[in-house]
Amino acid sequence: MVVLSQPAALDHLSDLIKACKPTSLFTGIPVVDLSDPEAKHHIVKACQDYGLFKLVNHGVPLDFMTTLEAQALKFFNLPQSEKEKAGPADPFGYGSKRIGPNGDVGWIEYILLNTNPDIISPKSLSIFKENPEIFRDAVLDYICAVKKMTFEVLELMVDGLGIEPRNVLSNLLREDKSDCCFRLNYYPPCPELQALSGRNLIGFGEHTDPQIISVLRSNNTSGLQISLKDGTWVSVPPDQNSFFINVGDCLQVMSNGRFKSVKHRVLADTTSSRISMIFFGGPPLSEKIAPLPSLMAEGEESLYKEFTWCEYKKSAYKSRLADYRLGLFEKS
Ligand code: GA4
């Protein structure tokens, strides 16, 4: 038996080391141009085929992305003891390595915030402490612009599905009580990885997002992978000027399975750090999550038991990252 040695720095992180099949950069990720009159049809097709697409000509000022990236980097470069003053993430705040409450770990540091109703909670204030106005304003400008763009995408999606009213999805995020959150992820480079010969370091383990929709922007470091319908993992070529939008579990249910909540993960890199910012659009806690009635064909039955977002969220927080969370809510 060949025993592969492991660098000491990774000793306590053996859960993170996986032999993932080598993947090449996937060239088939659907690209949707928001200024294209046909965008609504491309969005629907991408959500059915992949549960993910890249959005270009999105209208969000690039300056909002780069300013926030710079502010976030400044935070992640602070001494550990400073960053920890904004932690632990329970679930909101600064977190390092630990993801969620049930033992999941990753080669990652992050800041998790709820964007509605109170981004300016005491914990968030301690995150922005070093540079209060600039960092906080960068987060607020970014989220505001990304939300507006997300509403547009959701309205086009509904149009593309041929149903009404066109704000049936966007209104769920627009509500005062919508339950949206925002995540800044920092994946430090890991030079020790070189010694792992063929094995990989998991930055963020495989999972689906529980919400309706997720909107991701990263720097130009690769690492994001998605699982295709046949189960193969492919790498998503990064593009710092675009967004990657994915279907969450709630949207899978609301489309009665037509759209797929895409399984994804992030692998760490030996030399480059990856930074990503993700807006998660969730409905109000009391919202019943069920297939949109106008979408159901005659005689079509829901594949899922009815549940509220609050029930789903509670159940998600009892699960491990890689669990198939929708399973509990499927009709047998
Ligand atoms: C995955 C999507 C979002 O990042 C997140 C994550 C959340 C967390 O990190 O607190 C969860 C994870 C995510 C799904 C299952 C539970 C909850 C960690 C975890 C083990 C913020 C979310 O909403 O669900």
From TrEMBL:
SUPFAM superfamilies: Clavaminate synthase-like. GO terms for molecular function: gibberellin 2-beta-dioxygenase activity; metal ion binding. It catalyses: gibberellin A1 + 2-oxoglutarate + O2 = gibberellin A8 + succinate + CO2. Pfam families: 2OG-FeII_Oxy (PF03171), DIOX_N (PF14226). Its EC number is 1.14.11.13. The keyword Cell cycle does not apply. Belongs to the iron/ascorbate-dependent oxidoreductase family. GA2OX subfamily. Catalyzes the 2-beta-hydroxylation of several biologically active gibberellins, leading to the homeostatic regulation of their endogenous level. Catabolism of gibberellins (GAs) plays a central role in plant development. Converts GA9/GA20 to GA51/GA29 and GA4/GA1 to GA34/GA8. This is gibberellin 2beta-dioxygenase.
